[in-house]
């Protein structure tokens, strides 16, 4: 059976659709650097990014595709990236980085350690290293 199209000007209400996937996303709004530190210490995968940033969405979709549901910590547009990174414990920083100030948002933390931004996460994923890192952090059980 074929359904009838609803003309745009008919005045009829559009059929109800299920909520958009963005409405399902669990996002944790973070107020300060201390709260980000707690989130990184208590969760296996944390993404820290600016509110409404499309790169945060890309990072989250990549991680969801691997079977991981990360905690997303959003900061305001005026947040100081260097101050956020400096507030994290030293073990959270990747030893290959020269300083915390070189990290840009979004920043991805797995197992309490900084993986990097979107570019670094993509490189780790493409090289096949992402799944073992996620398993060691306890984010994947397969």
From TrEMBL:
Q: What GO cellular component term, any one, is given?
A: cytoplasm
Alphabetized InterPro entries for the sequence: GlrX-like_pln_2 (IPR011905), Thioredoxin-like_sf (IPR036249)
- Gene3D superfamilies, per the entry: Glutaredoxin
Output the SUPFAM superfamilies linked to this UniProt entry.
Thioredoxin-like
Report keywords, A-Z.
Answer: Cytoplasm, Redox-active center
Q: Which domain of life is it from?
A: Eukaryota
Work out whether the entry's keyword set contains Cytoplasm: yes
Where it sits in the cell: the answer is:
Cytoplasm
Q: Which family does it belong to?
A: Belongs to the glutaredoxin family. CC-type subfamily.
Indicate what this protein is called per its UniProt record: (wild Malaysian banana) hypothetical protein
């Amino acid at each position: 059976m074929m359904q009838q199209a609803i003309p745009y000007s008919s005045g009829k209400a559009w059929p109800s659709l299920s909520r958009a996937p963005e409405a399902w996303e669990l996002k944790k709004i973070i107020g300060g650097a201390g709260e980000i530190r707690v989130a990184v210490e208590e969760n296996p995968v944390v993404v820290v990014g600016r509110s409404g940033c499309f790169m945060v969405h890309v990072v989250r979709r990549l991680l969801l595709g691997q079977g991981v549901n990360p905690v997303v910590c959003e900061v305001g547009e005026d947040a100081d990236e260097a101050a956020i990174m400096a507030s994290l414990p030293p073990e959270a920083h990747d030893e290959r980085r020269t300083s915390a100030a070189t990290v840009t948002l979004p920043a991805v933390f797995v197992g309490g350690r900084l993986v990097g931004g979107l570019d670094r996460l993509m490189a780790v994923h493409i090289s096949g290293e992402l799944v073992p890192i996620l398993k060691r952090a306890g984010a994947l059980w397969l």
